Amino acid sequence: MELWYTERNIVPGLALSVEVSKTLHSEQTEYQHLAIVETPLCGRMLLLDNIIMTNIKDEFVYHEMISHVALNTHPNPKKVLVIGGGDGGAIREIIKHPSVEKAVLVEIDRRVVETSIEYLPEIACGLKDPKVEVHYKDGIKYVQDHKNEFDIILVDSTDPIGPAVGLFEGDFYKSCHEALKEDGIFVAQTESPYYNEELIPKVQKDIRANYPITKLYLAFIPTYPGGCWSFTMGSKKHDPEAVDFSNWAGYKTRYYNPEIHKAAFVLPNFVRELISK
Ligand code: AAT
């Protein structure tokens, strides 16, 4: 018998279906419904409140692109904070970077981390590294209590629903600005330019209010609605489009490279229009 999982909560009028061979885990945590399903096409998938968070097949695109663009824009990133991202994928990428000394993960839901360690070891593998520190807290509160501390802050958050709503708001961007050092860089996943036409201009405006350099970049993630996904960077000093890669030694990645870094900032006209609103 064929079983299919359909995501249809996030964009009204659009659904994405994946064949499922087995449900490996399902529970209601304090914050959300959490499930791990096995799929023939994408391997194991992490679902939160019935929305696809990540899967073995395409996770590398999202996790490399949320991390390496900022890590290579900053000339010497030592201390990096990830808010959300309990699966550990962004952490795995961050600790590949040779200058990173400490990577801090602040995830609201302990069960996302524990379940990812159990069922998604390929993604969660970096969480046990001695450079990594994990806190189970609301990211909004955590950044309020830390000033002038991080070189990079990455917001690997769920869509703007439930506990993640505040992670898309101006006050939070301001607190992140204060938690960053004087040449710090902020990056947030900022949803689909096709289906989040209201959110993206608002986020642009709010990030622009805090950072002199604000830029949106794109990556292709097949299991997120529409496939075309945006990230927004706010930088106090370093321009992501002016990175000199001529002496770049590199490290192992499957999506990211210097050409992708540059190309990600080349935007179609409709996206340019969205962010100039
Ligand atoms: N790495 C891709 C997976 C995610 S999951 C995002 C995580 O953010 C979840 O584990 C959720 O528990 C956590 N989170 C939500 N709100 C907060 C908060 N206020 N503080 C800390 N952590 C939080 C991202 C998927 C993107 C999906 C796009 N469709």
TrEMBL record:
UniProt catalytic activity: S-adenosyl 3-(methylsulfanyl)propylamine + putrescine = S-methyl-5'-thioadenosine + spermidine + H(+)
Catalytic site: D156 (proton acceptor)
Entry GO terms, CC: cytosol
GO molecular function: spermidine synthase activity
Keyword flag Membrane: no
Segments forming domain PABS: 2-236
Keyword Transferase included in the entry's annotation: yes
Keywords, in A-Z order: Polyamine biosynthesis, Spermidine biosynthesis, Transferase
Sequence positions that bind spermidine: H63, D87, D156, S157, T158, D159
E.C. number: 2.5.1.16
Ranges in a coiled coil: none
Annotated pathway: Amine and polyamine biosynthesis; spermidine biosynthesis; spermidine from putrescine: step 1/1
GO BP, sorted A to Z: spermidine biosynthetic process
List of residues binding S-methyl-5'-thioadenosine: Q32, E107, D138, G139, P163
CDD domains listed in its UniProt record: AdoMet_MTases
Enzyme's top EC category: transferase
Function: Catalyzes the irreversible transfer of a propylamine group from the amino donor S-adenosylmethioninamine (decarboxy-AdoMet) to putrescine (1,4-diaminobutane) to yield spermidine.
Subunit (UniProt): Homodimer or homotetramer.
Family recorded in the similarity comment: Belongs to the spermidine/spermine synthase family.
Name assigned to this protein: Polyamine aminopropyltransferase
Native source organism of the sequence: Desulforamulus aquiferis
Gene that this sequence comes from: speE
